[in-house]
Amino acid sequence: xxxxxxxxxxxxxxxxxxxxxxxxxxxxxxxxxxxxxxxxxxxxx
Length: 45
Fold this sequence. Notes:
Number of domains: 1
Strand content: under 5%
Largest sheet: none
Low-confidence stretches: none
Structural class: mainly alpha
Number of strands: 0
């Protein structure tokens, strides 16, 4: 199984995924924070 991810407003990539046979599965967001970001956030607060 292969997965691909793009934002719905990225119509160009969304269309390319559809052309390759990918189908919309779910709507949502995933966020990743780096250790550096967390350290800087903690230091600034």
